[in-house]
Amino acid sequence: MPERSLVIVPTYNEKDSIATAVQRLFDAVDESVDLLVVDDGSPDGTAEIVKGLAAGEPRIHLLERTSKRGLGDAYKTGFRWALDRGYTAVVEMDADLSHDPADVPRFLAALDTADLVIGSRYIPGGKVVNWSAFRESLSRNGNRYAGFWLRFGVKDATSGFRAFRSSILKGIDLDAVASQGYGFQIEMVRRVFLDGGRITEIPITFVERAAGSSKMSRRIVGEALYGVTKWGIKDRFRSK
């Protein structure tokens, strides 16, 4: 397990789940793991809840932003914050309990032999709970499309539960990563792959959020499909 690790949790209107997510995380990890919440100006008071939690726990940190700037931008902000403070590993995790905080130690352990560890719903042992057949088909086929174009051998490139070694993040030009949502997750896998990073997948159970609303939209899906096609064509011309 890396020496110092940071779990980054982007939030927007997550008041119903954030306290439980934080409690479950700290029940699962040791003192080497800190938490950074990046809140995009949640009008529901999410940031105030995090401030209350942080008052009794110095390992909880909060970055408050005044507007909703997107998932990709939140993670890039968190990555820079982690690198500036010398964390050796960074974990991405949702606040809505669709990701099980108890899995974080498995991600950190897997970084012993990888630069990027992806929590996969689509390898043996992985599964999705409470999704419609259409939603799961859309996700699976989107990942197949990304795999076809980008050839990185990853089954679940859109998964948002993952861990990076800081050493691999340092080599990525975060300013050049413009995608949001699923596109951001795919683009980060592609960049690690092109940089020669070691990528592994571990099985997770993804549970559709019980509180709040999904952030998925047609725009986010369309951005991801456009990006994958563009990157795939670019990479194929590069390899010739």
Describe the fold and architecture.
The chain is α/β, with parallel strands linked by helices and 240 residues long. It has a single domain (5-239), classed as Spore Coat Polysaccharide Biosynthesis Protein SpsA, Chain A (Alpha-Beta Complex), CATH 3.90.550.10. Helix content is 42%, strand content 18%. The chain is built from 8 helices and 9 strands. The strands form 2 sheets. The protein has a 7-stranded mixed β-sheet, with helices on both faces. It has a two-stranded parallel sheet with strand order 6-9. Helix 1 links the parallel strand 1 and strand 2.
Rg is 17 Å
Average pLDDT over all residues: 93
pLDDT < 50 runs, ≥5 residues = none
What's the architecture in CATH terms? Alpha-Beta Complex
CATH H-level superfamily title: Spore Coat Polysaccharide Biosynthesis Protein SpsA, Chain A
Report the helical percentage: 40-55%
Query: What's the end-to-end separation, in Å?
Result: 39 Å
Number of domains: 1
Identify the strand order in the major beta sheet.
3-2-1-4-7-5-8
CATH class: Alpha Beta
Count the helices. How many?
Answer: 8
Coarse morphology? globular
Which range does the strand content fall in?
A: 15-25%
The third-level CATH topology is Spore Coat Polysaccharide Biosynthesis Protein SpsA, Chain A
State the total count of DSSP E strands: 9
